[in-house]
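Why should sequence recovery work at all? Because a backbone constrains its sequence more than one might expect. Tight turns favour small or flexible residues, buried strands favour hydrophobic ones, and helices have their own preferences. The token representation captures these environments compactly. In the example below, the structure is given first.
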């Protein structure tokens, strides 16, 4: 998807009224692979020899690439934010952890929380996805602003795995075993805030404030664990750069700017 078409889609989507029903949402909502930005910031980076950040139209956060071996799981905990609209109509964003989708995009196993603001009404949805299939919601799983959420995605084979979400505030959790026909490489582990798709267009991106993944770690097939301090940092650039990302040995902070 090119930047120009994504921007047009954003403008058109901003006129939509109301939030889709669960049934409609489950046939339309999809996370996807990283879409490179071709905006000014990305072009500036492309013309230099050193960069600490990569610019994307849809992903902000941190992506680990395994130098050898594969990742088998990724975990992170964050506090659900209160989203703000950047204009009229519905705006949304999603916080998730996942395996693959950056340098290997044949399949992605991921789970997370969407946060949507429509007027003064904020809503939250817990979901899972084995891309390229569309996402599915965990129905009956309550989430609200301020809840502390732990996300885990686990790869058990090249075409299977599982995901879980725990609401540490309420003590409730959900789990799903996933299978698919598109291969998981296990080459990436990610902690992301995404401007996701509904239909074939990116949704209008919400001001999510700050999302910090703590206890962030990825497990290798060898049994070792690594944190995000050496990960590739990703910022969203649409008409301008919308995020600022930093990482430590066990956390990733994504700030809307």
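From this structural description, the recovered sequence reads:
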């Amino acid at each position: 998807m090119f930047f120009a078409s994504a921007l047009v889609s954003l403008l058109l989507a901003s006129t939509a009224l109301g939030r889709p029903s669960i049934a409609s949402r489950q046939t339309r909502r999809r996370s996807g692979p990283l879409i490179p930005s071709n905006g000014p910031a990305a072009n500036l980076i492309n013309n230099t020899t050193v960069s600490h950040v990569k610019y994307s139209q849809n992903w902000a956060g941190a992506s680990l690439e395994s130098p050898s071996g594969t990742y088998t799981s990724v975990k992170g905990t964050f506090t659900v934010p209160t989203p703000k609209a950047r204009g009229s109509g519905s705006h949304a964003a999603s916080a998730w952890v996942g395996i693959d989708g950056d340098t290997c995009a044949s399949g992605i196993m991921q789970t997370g929380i969407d946060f949507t603001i429509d007027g003064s009404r904020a809503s939250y949805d817990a979901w899972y996805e084995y891309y390229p299939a569309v996402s599915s919601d965990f129905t009956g799983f309550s989430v609200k602003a301020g809840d502390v959420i732990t996300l885990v995605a686990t790869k058990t084979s090249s075409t299977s795995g599982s995901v879980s979400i725990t609401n540490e505030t309420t003590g409730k959790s959900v789990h799903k075993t996933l299978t698919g026909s598109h291969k998981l490489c296990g080459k990436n582990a990610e902690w992301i805030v995404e401007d996701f798709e509904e239909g074939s267009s990116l949704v209008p991106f919400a001001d999510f404030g700050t999302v910090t993944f703590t206890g962030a770690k990825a497990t290798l097939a060898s049994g070792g664990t690594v944190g995000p301090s050496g990960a590739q940092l990703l910022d969203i650039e649409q008409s301008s750069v919308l995020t600022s990302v930093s990482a430590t040995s066990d956390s990733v902070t994504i700030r809307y700017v």
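A few observations help interpret the result. The longest helix spans residues 3-13.
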